[in-house]
Design goal:
Elements lengths: L1 E3 L11 E4 L2 E4 L4 H13 L5 E2 L7 H4 L4 H16 L28 H4 L11 H20 L4 E4 L21 H9 L5 E5 L6 H6 L6 E8 L24 E6 L5 H18 L3 E6 L16 H12 L5 E5 L8 H16 L4
Parallel strand pairs: 1-4, 1-5, 5-10, 6-7, 6-9, 7-8, 9-10
Antiparallel strand pairs: 2-3
Helix pairs in contact: 1-10, 5-6, 8-9, 9-10
Bound molecules: zinc ion.
Zinc ion binds next to loops.
């Protein structure tokens, strides 16, 4: 299986995030992508493709123009205004009853952001842009006839909505790729990160062209808390094209695969031309951000089951924060997928 990677992710390297009552080391570190890269190369996944670059129209197909402008410009304005160099972190948030956007960029921070753990630093925009390019390149490779491609995206994307960011995500890589593919055929996004892909859901909530199916931790106890419930089915033309499977803590492989079977049945009925998988390794039992009970071997079984769909598939990297397990989790997923898809490593 070919995979897409670029060193450009390294330019997005916040030192800290605000967690509960203090600044802590940033979990979504550049080391994550390097560890995955190393593990892939060690496991004979050697066909690295460098991402192509795309006009901004491909990003604008998913994200609002004012939001993109904000991501690109806020850090330099922030520094000019004498704010902390550690990164843009809002201290006030625009909620339901306070949603007007102030004129000055430096005062808009809480308008576009929904948490305090996703700083914008010097290279954030460039890193996010190249991460989206990785996913777009993978989408184009499917359109050109590849049966399966893995996009080593960093920063991740599935928490980013049309005009909001959070959860270490700025541009929604999977959604940008899915939007591009949807011009050719119907697309299903299967999100198997530990956290609900609230951004992806929002982007396609009114669409019948892209089916979104997500298996994740119940938002009653887990981030992002305000979406991912089972009764969110879509609106307008998109009604019936959004499925959430919130799970309780300590879900083991047997229970997880059972839910995955159900999710795959829904996708099968939709009969998409392409499958995009938002893949997180934070479902692993020792992930610091998760509470599921999947083993590293579980990922190969999950990969195998997804491959049985027999659709051109783009696997997009989302979360996964146990640096000892991350590489093996990704490799197992890809091996499992290749085993059943007859794609050579
Ligand atoms: Zn996650």
């Amino acid at each position: 299986m070919k995979f897409i990677y670029t060193e450009s992710h390294k330019c997005h390297a916040p030192q800290y995030e605000f967690n509960r009552d203090r600044m802590t080391t940033y979990s979504e570190s550049p080391a994550r992508a390097e560890i995955i890269l190393w593990a892939l190369q060690k496991s004979d996944f050697t066909e690295i493709t460098t991402p192509r670059q795309y006009p901004l129209a491909f990003i604008r197909a998913v994200h609002d123009s004012d939001y993109i402008y904000y991501l690109e410009n806020i850090y330099s304005v922030w520094i000019t205004e004498g704010e902390p160099e550690a990164g843009v972190i809002p201290h006030t948030f625009a909620l339901r009853t306070m949603s007007k956007r102030p004129e000055k960029l430096v005062n808009q921070t809480g308008y576009y952001c929904f948490d305090a753990q996703t700083p914008i630093v010097q290279g954030t925009y460039e890193g996010a842009l190249f991460s989206a390019y990785c996913a777009l390149t993978g989408a184009d490779m499917l359109l050109e006839g590849e049966s399966a491609v893995y996009a080593l995206c960093r920063p991740p994307g599935h928490h980013a909505g049309r005009g909001i960011y959070g959860g270490y995500c700025y541009l929604n890589n999977a959604a940008i790729a899915a939007k591009h593919l949807s011009q050719e055929a119907r697309v299903s996004i299967l999100d198997i990160d530990y956290h609900h892909g609230n951004g992806t859901q929002e982007i396609f909530y009114d669409s019948s062209r892209v089916l979104f199916v997500s298996i994740h931790a119940n938002p009653n106890r887990a981030y992002p808390f305000f979406s991912g419930f089972a009764d969110e089915h879509g609106v307008g033309a998109g009604r019936g094209f959004n499925y959430n499977f919130p799970l309780e803590e300590h879900v083991d492989e047997r229970q997880y695969i059972k839910v995955l079977e159900h999710a795959m049945d829904i996708i099968q009925q939709f009969d998409p031309g392409f499958l995009v998988v938002s893949f997180g390794v934070d479902t692993f039992r020792d992930d610091p951000l998760g509470d599921f009970d999947l083993s590293l071997e579980s990922f190969s079984h999950i990969g195998k089951r997804i491959a049985q769909m027999r659709r051109p598939t783009l696997l997009v990297q989302e979360g996964g924060y146990n640096l000892q397990a991350l590489g093996e989790g990704v490799v197992n997923m890809l091996w499992g997928f290749c085993y059943d898809f007859s794609v050579s490593a």
